[in-house]
Design a protein that fits this description.
With about 425 residues, the chain is mainly alpha-helical. The chain has three domains: about 90 residues, Fumarase C, Chain B, domain 1; about 230 residues, Up-down Bundle (Fumarase C, Chain A, domain 2), CATH 1.20.200.10; about 60 residues, Ribonucleotide Reductase Protein R1, domain 1, CATH 1.10.40.30. About 60% of the residues lie in helices and about 5% in strands. Strands 1-2 form a two-stranded antiparallel ribbon. It has a two-stranded parallel sheet with strand order 3-4. Helix 8 links the parallel strand 3 and strand 4. The protein is elongated. It binds arginine. The site of arginine has 10 residues, from helix 6. The site of arginine (ARG) has 10 residues, from helix 6.
């Protein structure tokens, strides 16, 4: 025993080499599962006691030991030890130090395979809730800005070329809609993953008279997973989470790109608060939208994390394979990354100011009211749209040659191209 592994070393004479330990250890990553691991163990111990699989007093001892471990971890007193591989064995090893040999009964009718699957589902479920809250906060900011700028005319773009006048409110409303779908993707992920793997044990279930419905209910799951083999193998819930993160990040990257564009002096639609921008160490005039650029860039990590786990899981035979230990790092990283991006985007928007006069002038400069003119010709002169398009094109050309905007042309200028135009047209040319 002294040379071999403390937790599973019964049949081993030698202890693992340092490199073996280094490749095998997951504690630095999976210690983030501690709260879920203890919740799962408490539910399991409680169930073992109720079912008479262990003595009720033993269950009580185990549960109070686990409660003490919660205190230790919260107070930074818990001894995290790499030699115990992962969070599960660290907690069990500490439990043994606290309650003695009774700790050894906790792992009855359980394997680390169903244990880690349970912990991870609980963690991702919580993470979905936290992300939804952050998305909702950003949506509130967008809704407020949209309402404040319901009348703020700006150019709407296609191909990043001025297309038709819109309002800033309508522009931002589009992002609010995207985020609503993102939030629903996280809700969907949390709902679909909400079945309990606990009781699947290593893969084939267990001969003890366990009560899977009880532990499922204790942990807030809707029901036990129907297939024990699926329960320990499935990580599609993590992939779904990673996709939801990647998609939300992608939406944020589009908004971030607009912030980068709008804050250039050339556009000048938007100004970031000092607290949400940075200066240049060499060019004193600069005010850079670094947070927006980083939100834009972090899409790369979010996409990468999705591909990482999809690739780890591809073609793995049933059931548990150690490959699957690589599932947590991308999920934790995507959560942290998306949380940061959501908060940074909210911070930038909530404190930014918009130059509405400049936005309106830009909408006028770009002949974005040309479509409105064409539509006027159709509706008032009963022209076929193609003809109206042509006539409008000629009027735009005339305005361009005079260096004026459409509404600055005189009625006779326009009538020189289409004699039936009357002054009623002016009301659609003004934004
Ligand atoms: N640290 C492991 C993981 O995250 C726990 C499960 C280990 N199971 C096993 N059969 N070795 O996947």
């Amino acid at each position: 025993m002294s040379q071999s592994h403390k937790m599973w070393g019964g049949r081993f004479a030698d202890k693992p080499t340092d490199i073996m330990q280094a490749i095998n250890v997951s504690l630095p990553v999976d210690r983030r599962l501690w709260r879920q691991d203890i919740a799962g163990s408490k539910a399991h111990a409680d169930m073992l006691g109720r079912q008479g699989i262990i003595a009720a007093a033993e269950a009580k001892t185990i549960i109070s030991g686990l409660d003490q471990i919660v205190q230790e971890i919260e107070n930074g007193k818990f001894p995290f030890r790499d030699e115990f591989e992962d969070i599960h064995m660290n907690i069990e090893a500490r439990l043994k130090e606290i309650v003695g040999d009774t700790a050894g009964r906790l792992h009855t009718a359980r394997s680390r395979n169903d244990q880690v699957a349970t912990d991870f589902r609980l963690w991702v479920r919580d993470a979905c809730g936290e992300i939804i809250t952050m998305i909702t906060t950003l949506q509130t900011t967008l809704k407020t800005l949209s309402a404040d700028h319901a009348q703020s005319v700006m150019p709407g773009f296609t191909h990043l070329q001025p297309a038709q006048p819109v309002t800033l409110g309508r522009h931002l409303q589009a992002y609010d809609e995207m985020l609503a779908r993102d939030a629903s993707r996280f809700a969907d992920c949390a709902r679909r993953l909400n079945e309990s793997p606990l009781g699947a044990a290593a893969l084939a279930g267990t001969p003890y008279p366990i009560d899977r419905a009880f532990t499922a209910q204790q942990l807030g799951f809707d029901r036990p997973m129907a297939s024990t083999m699926d329960a320990v193998s499935a990580r599609d819930f993590a992939n779904e989470f990673l996709f939801a993160c990647a998609q939300a990040g992608l939406h944020l990257s589009r908004l971030a790109e607009e912030i980068v564009i709008w804050t250039t002096p050339q556009f000048g639609f938007m100004r970031l608060a000092d607290a949400w921008s940075t200066g240049s160490s060499i060019m004193p005039q600069k005010k850079n939208p670094d947070a927006a650029e980083l939100v834009r860039a972090k899409t790369g990590r979010l996409n990468g994390n999705l591909i990482t786990l999809m690739t780890v899981m591809k073609a793995l035979p049933l059931t548990y394979n150690k490959d699957m230990q690589e599932d947590k790092a991308p999920v934790f990283d995507s959560f942290d990354t998306l949380a940061l991006c959501l908060q940074a985007t909210d911070g930038m928007l909530a404190t930014a100011t918009f130059d509405t006069a400049r936005m309106r002038a830009s909408a006028e400069d770009g002949y974005t009211n040309a479509t409105a003119l064409a539509d006027w010709l159709v509706m008032n002169l009963n022209m076929p749209f193609r003809d109206a398009h042509h006539v409008t094109g000629r009027i735009v050309k005339l305005a361009e040659s005079k260096g004026s905007k459409l509404h600055e042309l005189s009625l006779s200028d326009m009538q020189s191209i289409e004699s039936r135009i009357n002054q009623d047209v002016l009301k659609v040319l003004r934004n």
